[in-house]
Design a protein that fits this description.
Structural class of chain B: mainly alpha
Number of strands of chain B: 0
Shape of chain B: globular
Largest sheet of chain A: none
Chains: A mainly alpha (286), B mainly alpha (318), C alpha+beta (533)
Order of helices and strands of chain A: HHHHHHHHH
Order of helices and strands of chain B: HHHHHHHHHHHHHH
Radius of gyration of chain B: 24 Å
Mean pLDDT of chain A: 83
Oligomer: heterotrimer
Number of helices of chain A: 9
Mean pLDDT of chain B: 79
Strand content of chain B: under 5%
Helix content of chain A: over 70%
Low-confidence stretches of chain B: none
Helix content of chain B: over 70%
Radius of gyration of chain A: 22 Å
Low-confidence stretches of chain A: 1-14
């Protein structure tokens, strides 16, 4: 489901640029996730993988705020630790795909001709098969782990960025300032990087944030199907799958990670939308 | 350029894509770790005789390209071989399951369009309004919630607590199927609605700022008429594109939904075949999926071409 | 070779009880039609994974076998006490250890009305026999050299070596199929277009691996017609979904409920759970021929790292017991009686207790005092494996041993068990089909074992294994088995983990006469079903 998503378009340019409370709330959620991922070793009430069979499958209590799982591990601590795979993989997917996509998009958009045809036909090919299915087949058949899944998602997410950046470049290419730069002898690479890139930045940034969300949802979906992360890792998608069996004993073992995935995804989407609006207004104002 | 010429050009492109894809899909067998004969033997006893028989049958001793040519030759005639587990023809397996998945995809798409287009139009014409903010908020949440979580939530509320809908199975007959498929379709539609809503909203806003709409407003044409005459028609093209994409993806990408609701569709078939390393089925499904996506895109593009006079003129000019 | 574990196929080397089991042969609960309840129109069973074929030569994992055994008669049958009884063969003679002579009934008709001949029976057995056989079950019949019709009602099976388990194997795998039908169907036999022609209590109305199986009662069934007119199998992968379906009346029964899920199933208002002790044995295999497990101290260290008793609740909802040997506990008591089993356990000694400190001590004495790193594959379709492996990995970390848990599919897991380059540490689940305590040891112990997972064996061990394999009476079995298990407990090639129960759910509208029995897969089990009236 990655393809057709585009950031909500710009609102009335007359409105003043204001980040708004929603944006800051979203930044807060992301900041908390980052903080949790970095400091889990010190702030978690329990070691996330420590077992206590006697306390297996308990509901929330003073000792375990969100209860325990089948092996008596503390759910709250595991949620904090889950921020690691929840952030790193999607981040690598977003930045990797953004980097590859932007580079290829600039190149093809500016160079045109044979390069453009080859790259665009390859992308058509990739669009013919839904990314999640490709990830299931590749990770499932080749038995790779988390990083193979991340790698596959980078490759499959890049085409979206290529298309967006290429379209933006092609639009910019015909504008007078680019023509002017060309006439004074500025090389194509320099034009692309110095003149065109800044103008497509809002689109690229917004899309990178969007790819983060897509990566997060895809990776947790794969983990839910038992593909990707190693069994027993404190990963949100995997926790939903592994704790399904104790839904009656401790529903928080399932609700908790599902809420974490959703909250982080919503927060990043909100940030992406606002960043796009604000950046494109600034660009327009320049 | 005529519609026929345009269609022919697109079909040629599709054939090329399919050809390249088939090479990749067939290459999976060569890329798989271990002996291909063992993979194709599946669960049967791996005696030297059995392995030799498999090598003979699949021509594994031939050069790669010969094997590939044979595979393509069969595939073109609709023969993707048999499942190495059940021995059922791959085409039979797919035919058995495509109905469930198609039901799910179409039902979800109908729900998506019914919700997303009106909401997106309303949101796009009055940006910043309460409707707009509500629509944006809803799309945010449904876009970001993982499909499996939405599915469980719906099962818990509507099947367990309220007992309004069944929690599994596909049903028999139209109305029974409709009833059984409602929760899965809503689950699948949730994420799609967000996408289409955002598209419609953006397209509407884009059109709403155009001069002809401003003129229409200046001529005091009622807002209902404006929405109908100008906005809906002009915003329909980008919306059509994403709806087409959604259908193609829904036909094939409903893996998680089928998993949660225990539906025996193409998605569950894929997950199981991958888990069992049932390569002929995986290969057949990959090609079938690609064909579906490409054909859906083709139909959408042709509609687009037929609907939009500007595009036709541009194509003639090029 | 992948198909011998519980998930992918019940029961490997089925060693027959041959009337030596504790109870006599006067039980008739597996025979005779229409004993239970009142007539009903339809019963819907759910199974957890699809029926993959209607032919056991192609596929025979447990859910698939459930459907196959409802439709196809087997040559012999096993009663609720685990004793082999006549079925399609009205008599079987085992007096010659190298020969099995079957007398075939003459009143059996296929669903199409044609008479079953002795040739059909020969075909149904011989298709699993010989080096050319493509049957998945051929390894079960490795000892058989020929299957012949000696006259119009007699089939003689000749063996190269004694195989006391042969009659039991025939009661699961020798499903009677019409030769003419299969030959006309060719490769399509067993599939959805040509599922097969049988003689059983139900004929196949429709079969597909997607939609399940619909069966219609065989009104002229030779053993009396069943009470349920239509039988249907549906696939529901998720036990919670199945539970909702049963409570809403969409299904009437569910086979093989995962034990961890039974807590919620016990609370069903319109259904009843039945639990029977299963001859299912779960264990950890440590290959003694490979580092680090070529040192008994390393194996003992692992043995100390699993809290087997503590895991019974979290993993099985208490519906399992701690295994004391690689022989399932019910086989031990069925063969030797309660006292005899107790004596046996005392004689073979205790397994390592759970203790991190003792694990440290053992590891310090081993050739790898600083620990080692290994992969452990877990089959995602067996819900106890992954948490058990995580438990072991976490405890192992504390003594310096790193165990990487790899989630794999059932197919990958099965392949990994026999891969010589695979990890020396493996989780295994075996299912037995009889109550005979001598059934499983020859399969996994000794250099001659069918599945020498741990590579455990030498001349002395092989000698004991041979005696166990060919023992035909309890007295012949006792001493060699005791010596063999005593050695295995000390050497610890396998760490026995759990004996699991089998859980079956059935709606209160229906009855299973005599209750679900562990040996149902070897019986014409639908005959026991009926409406509760």
């Amino acid at each position: 489901m990655t393809a057709a998503v585009q950031p909500a378009a710009v609102a009335d340019p007359a409105r003043r640029v204001r980040w708004g409370w929603l944006f800051w709330a979203a930044v807060g959620v992301v900041a908390l996730s980052v903080l949790a991922a970095l400091t889990v070793r010190w702030i978690a009430p329990y070691e996330p993988s420590a077992q206590n069979l006697v306390d297996s499958g308990q509901g929330p209590s003073g000792q375990h705020w969100l209860g325990t799982d089948q092996l008596g591990r503390d759910i709250f601590s595991r949620l904090l630790a889950g921020a690691r795979t929840g952030l790193i993989g999607p981040l690598v997917v977003a930045i990797g795909a953004g980097f590859i996509g932007t580079a290829l998009g600039l190149w093809t958009g500016y160079a045109g001709g044979a390069v453009d045809s080859v790259v665009m036909r390859t992308i058509d090919l990739m669009y013919a098969v839904p990314p999640l299915l490709v990830a299931i087949v590749v990770v499932g058949l080749f038995g790779g782990g988390y990083w193979l899944a991340v790698g596959v998602l980078i490759v499959l997410s890049a085409p979206g960025d290529v298309r967006i950046v290429r379209a933006a470049v092609m639009a910019q290419r015909e504008l007078p300032y680019v023509a002017a730069a060309r006439t004074v002898g500025v090389g194509p690479l320099r034009i692309a990087v110095r003149h065109v890139l800044p103008n497509v930045t809002p689109t690229v940034v917004a899309n990178v944030l969007l790819q983060f969300v897509v990566g997060l949802i895809a990776l947790s979906g794969l983990a839910f199907l038992g593909l990707g992360v190693e069994a027993g890792s404190p990963d949100w998608g995997l926790m939903v799958a592994e704790n399904r069996g104790i839904l009656d004993l401790n529903p928080w073992a399932v609700i908790g990670p599902a809420v974490c995935i959703s909250l982080l995804a919503i927060a990043v989407t909100v940030i992406g939308d606002r960043v796009y609006e604000v950046l494109s207004q600034r660009t327009a104002a320049r | 350029m005529t519609l026929t010429a345009y269609a022919l050009r697109r079909i040629a492109a599709i054939l090329i894509i399919l050809a390249v894809l088939s090479l990749l899909v067939f290459g999976l067998l060569a890329l798989m770790p271990g002996d291909p004969a063992l993979t194709l033997l599946g669960p049967k006893a791996s005696t030297p005789e059995a392995l030799a028989a498999v090598r003979e049958r699949f021509g594994l001793n031939d050069p790669f390209l010969t094997q590939y040519a044979r595979w393509v030759g069969n595939a073109v005639r609709g023969d993707f071989g048999e499942s190495i587990y059940s021995g059922d023809a791959v085409t039979t397996l797919i035919a058995d399951r495509v109905g469930v998945t198609a039901w799910l995809a179409v039902y979800a798409l109908v729900l998506t369009v019914l919700v997303a287009v009106p909401l997106g139009l309303a949101a796009g014409t009055r940006t910043g309004s309460r409707t707009d903010r509500a629509a944006t908020a809803v799309s945010l949440i449904t876009l970001s919630a993982p499909t499996f979580a939405v599915g469980f939530l719906l099962i818990y509320v509507f099947a367990v607590k309220l007992d309004l809908f069944p929690s599994f199975g596909a049903g028999d007959g139209f109305f029974d199927t409709l009833w059984h498929m409602t929760l899965p379709a809503v689950t699948l539609a949730a994420g799609q609605t967000a996408v289409l809503l955002r598209q419609t909203r953006a397209a509407t806003m884009d059109v709403a700022e155009r001069d002809f709409v401003t003129f229409a407003r200046a001529r005091a044409i009622s807002s209902g008429r404006i929405r109908q005459r100008y906005l809906l028609r002009n915003a329909s093209l980008p919306v059509l594109t994403s709806a087409g994409l959604l259908l193609a993806y829904g036909l094939t990408g409903a893996v998680l939904v089928e998993n949660v609701f225990a539906l025996q569709g193409l998605g569950t078939l894929l997950v199981r075949s991958v888990a069992q390393l049932d390569l002929p089925v995986v290969q057949g499904l990959a090609m079938f999926t690609a064909l579906l996506v490409l054909l859906t895109n083709l139909v959408v593009d042709l509609l687009y071409f037929a609907l939009d006079p500007r595009l036709r003129r541009a194509a003639v000019a090029s | 070779m992948r198909g011998f574990t519980r998930r992918s196929a019940i029961a490997l080397a089925l060693v027959a009880a041959l009337g030596v089991a504790a109870c006599g042969g006067d039980d008739d609960s597996s025979g005779g039609g229409g004993g239970a309840g009142v007539e009903v129109d339809k019963m819907v069973w759910a199974i957890q994974s699809p029926v993959q074929s209607m032919d056991p030569a192609i596929m025979a994992d447990v859910p698939t076998l459930r459907a196959q055994t409802a439709a196809f008669d087997r040559v012999l049958s096993i009663d609720n006490n685990g004793v082999v009884q006549p079925w399609i063969a009205s008599k079987f003679d085992t007096s010659d250890p190298l020969k099995l002579v079957l007398t075939i009934r003459d009143d059996v008709k296929f669903w199409d009305g044609t008479a079953m001949t002795v040739d059909d029976v020969v075909y149904s057995i011989a298709r699993h026999v010989g080096p050319d056989s493509t049957s998945m079950q051929s390894f079960n019949f490795a000892a058989v050299t020929s299957v012949e019709a000696t006259d119009a009602s007699t089939v003689t099976i000749t063996l190269a070596a004694p195989d006391p388990g042969l009659p039991a194997k025939l009661s699961v795998w020798a499903q009677v199929r019409q030769q003419k039908y299969d030959e006309a169907a060719g490769e399509a036999a067993g599939g959805s277009d040509k599922p097969g022609m049988g003689t059983g209590p139900y004929s196949i109305t429709s079969y597909s691996s997607a939609d399940g199986v619909k069966l219609t009662r065989n009104d002229s069934y030779w053993a009396g017609k069943p009470k349920v007119k239509e039988l249907e199998f549906k696939v529901i992968g998720d036990p919670d979904t199945a539970r909702l379906a049963l409570s809403s009346g969409e299904i009437d029964g569910f086979f093989d409920v995962p034990l961890i899920a039974t807590r919620q199933w016990d609370e069903l208002e319109n259904g009843t759970m039945s639990y029977v002790a299963g001859a299912y044995n779960d264990f950890l295999s440590m290959n003694v021929t490979r580092a680090p497990f070529d040192d008994v101290n390393a194996r003992t260290a692992i043995g100390h790292l699993i809290d087997r008793a503590g895991l019974l609740g979290p993993l099985f909802n208490g519906k399992a017991t701690v295994a004391q040997s690689v022989v399932p506990a019910i086989q031990m008591t069925a063969t030797f009686g309660d006292d005899g089993a107790k004596k046996m356990y005392e004689a073979i000694g205790a397994l390592p207790e759970f203790s991190i400190d003792k694990a440290k001590e053992a590891l310090a004495k081993s050739a790898t005092p600083d620990g080692f790193t290994l992969d452990l594959a877990v089959d995602t379709s067996q819900p106890w494996m992954s948490p058990l492996a995580q438990h072991l990995a976490e405890n192992a970390k504390q003594v310096g041993i790193t165990i990487n848990v790899k989630q794999v599919s059932a197919a990958d897991w099965g392949a990994g068990l026999l891969d010589p380059a695979g990890s020396p540490l493996q989780l295994v689940a075996l299912g037995a089909a009889t109550p005979w305590a001598g059934e499983l040891p020859p399969v996994i112990l000794g250099t001659t074992a069918g599945f020498p997972l741990a590579g455990y064996g030498d001349e002395a061990i092989d000698g004991l294994v041979g005696q166990v394999a060919q023992a035909a009476t309890v007295d012949q079995l006792r001493q060699p088995l005791q010596d063999l298990l005593k050695g295995a407990t000390a050497d610890l090639p396998y760490l026995p983990l759990f004996d699991e129960q089998v859980a079956t759910a059935i709606a209160n509208k229906f009855v299973w006469e005599g209750g679900y029995a562990y040996y149902a897969l070897s019986q014409a089990w639908p005959l026991q079903l009926g409406g509760a009236g």
